[in-house]
Write a structure and sequence with these properties.
The protein is of the alpha+beta class. The protein has a single domain, classed as Gamma-glutamyl cyclotransferase-like (Hypothetical upf0131 protein ytfp), CATH 3.10.490. The protein is built from 4 helices and 5 strands, in the order E-H-E-E-H-E-E-H-H. The longest helix has 14 residues. The chain starts with a strand and ends with a helix.
């Protein structure tokens, strides 16, 4: 199965630890979605995506096994916090996690942000993309 990661699972070392069978394929841009950090009631905000025309989410594609998917389901608190959504690339289905309950903006903790920034580096994305987004979210409380 193909999996689109956009939060701390961009960090290759963490993803490999969580999902032993996972294989990083490439960086990928999900169009018409926007990255957002939401309140998870445990402290800092966690990554989510929401539909937003003319926006994009910088992430990564991984190939994962059924066993890995089950581990991710537990980690992502599926189906309570996140549900699964799908899109297609070249006829192949790609899964990603999506929060159906849209809570308010909550900035990520420093630790969580650092994991995501490392993931951006691992994928070849520039950290300034994420930092710019977080800055704009704080100003606008979108």
């Amino acid at each position: 199965m193909l999996y689109f990661a956009f939060g701390s699972n961009l960090y290759h070392k963490q993803m490999k630890k969580r999902c032993k069978d996972s294989v990083y394929i490439k960086c990928y841009v999900l169009k018409n979605y926007k990255l957002f950090f939401r309140n998870n009631f445990l402290g800092g905000g966690v990554a989510d995506v929401e539909k937003r025309k003319n926006s994009k989410v910088f992430g990564a594609l991984y190939k994962i096994s059924k066993k890995d998917e089950k581990k991710l389901d537990i980690y992502e608190d599926f189906p309570n916090t996140y549900i699964k959504k799908y899109f297609k690339i070249s006829g192949k289905k790609v899964m990603f996690y999506f929060m159906p309950k849209k809570t308010k903006f909550n900035p990520p903790s420093k630790r969580y942000l650092n994991l995501i920034l490392q993931g951006y580096k691992d994928c070849g994305w520039e950290a300034k993309i994420l930092l710019k987004l977080i800055g704009s979210l704080k100003r606008h409380r979108v």
